[in-house]
Design brief:
Elements: H1 4-11, H2 15-40, H3 45-52, H4 56-63, H5 71-80
């Protein structure tokens, strides 16, 4: 049986898949950063909601990708986790089908 990493590497050989993956990657990185930080701080969604004043259901939607947070919401989440929100622009990586 293939691992997820192997499956992804195989799929990334397809140009259309690689392009779609690249398009979703920034959103997934934001979600991953929120979830990883919350878990590293041993916070539940409910506890983070109490610290930020953002409804737990809203935090859940952000974490499962059904809600795109505004910069204001991201800042409130960062503040609630005692973190600094940084946004950067970096050169794009070339997508190459193998």
């Amino acid at each position: 049986m293939k691992t997820l990493k192997q499956f992804k590497a195989e799929q990334m050989k397809n140009h259309d898949f690689a392009a779609a993956y690249a398009e979703l990657e920034p959103e997934m990185n934001v979600i991953r950063a929120i979830v990883d930080t919350r878990i590293a701080q041993n916070l539940t969604q409910k506890e983070l909601a109490e610290k930020t004043g953002i409804a737990q259901t809203e935090i859940s939607r952000i974490e499962n990708g059904t809600r795109n947070p505004s910069l204001k919401i991201l800042q409130r989440l960062a503040d609630g986790m005692d973190m600094v929100l940084k946004v950067s622009f970096e050169p794009k990586k070339k997508i190459k089908a193998q």
